Amino acid sequence: MKVIVCGAGQVGFNIAKHLSNQQNDVTVIDRSNKLIRKISESLDVQALVGHGSDPEMLSKAGAADADLLVAVTLSDEVNMVTCQVAHSLFSIPTKIARIRNQVYLKQQWADLFSRDNLPIDVIISPELEVAQALSRRLEVPGAFNMIPFADNKVRFIGIQLDENCPVVDTPLRQLTELFPNLQTVVTAIYRGDTLFVPRSDDQLQIGDSIIIAVETSTTERAMAVFGHEEEQAQRIVIVGGGNIGLALAQSLENSDGKQNVKIIEYNAERATQLAEKLNKTVIINGDALNREILLEANIAQTDTVVSVADDDEVNILSSLLAKQQGCKSAITLLNNPIYGNLVGSLGIDVAMDPRETTVSSIVRHVRRGRIRDLYSIFEGQAEIIEAEVLAGSEVVKKTVGELRLHGEVKFGMVVREDETILPSADTQLQNGDRVIIFALAHAVKKIEQLFSARADLF
Q1: Residue 288 burial by Cβ neighbours in a 10 Å radius (0-12, 13-18, 19+)
Q2: What is the pLDDT of residues 90-146, one digit of tens each?
Q3: Could you point out which of 99, 153, 159, 427 has its C-alpha 20 to 30 Å from the C-alpha of 301?
């Protein structure tokens, strides 16, 4: 697939990295010589200095035969114009634009992005998606990730195992015997620096990060089996009232829960805006690194602090200060991956990498075949894929065992109408089944082919 990415910032860089690693032909355009030099030295892509909305630059990037354009510059308006030029002059089939200003996304202006007006096929809002991901983490306390599939009938949950886990040193095949009604399967283990699909005789170890597939209704019981029985946070302090902090607070206000939510915002003008947009959330104008401000927020009695300021160092330090003063749990947004390996030893419970949500939102529109949804995890080392079984595909009427995908793919759940099935080697896939699969990166193409109707392969 030939892809043009306009914008070489953090979002553009990670999209280009992921797509090029998947053997796509990628060209990146950005005005910054510095960013283009970095991307040229780091990735196997073509990198051009210029304006993404410039027709001559798009032509030079190969827009005439491009399959996909992704506009993720810092300007919403430049992204819109870039998609318009790509459509009007080059007829690029699929155009994805990053839109940060939530005003553009209001339902009353929904016709703005129609084919007759501004022809954008997919709109992504990274800040909004990160807020939704944070909300999901709060929904399942003790998890470092939670991704719903099949209309939330199935969840894939990331769990860090500690000394409280009662099933360490137990072969995975025995979990079914010990917990016969537990609709759960361990699909992946991240141990040290290695990610692998476990075999039935593999044992879990303290310190492992695991990804489990679970029927949604049994989430609480599954978490307990792996040593996590934390209660859902009722008192939450959000550090940073930017787009992410605002969207998270709005999500919490609109949820069924009765959480007590506070936002600490450094900028006085922004704090005033937050107070006007939120109904139940308490807004505190001040510095989250100031102990007096944390005292005002009653941080010692807080269940969870969620640090989502624009500065990684502020997020780390505010999380650590909050925990030092008695806050039970800390979720910390980290844009710079260099901090990722440090946070666990520092005492931060969950490090949120915004790259995963953004890359996933793009890649799900790139996959071929009957791929309904997907999520990229562990820095692109693997994907969780929801695929639909089609009548003309290779998988229909075959059993899971006959597909011979051992070692690189793990079938998590099969949803058949209203039934959720924990698959075994003898499970036969039927037309219309929705199958949620964990796949290592090198096996993703194989999954696409297997779940494509034969006409899609040519």
Answers
A1: buried
A2: 999 999 999 988 788 777 887 888 777 888 988 888 888 899 999 999 999 999 999
A3: 159
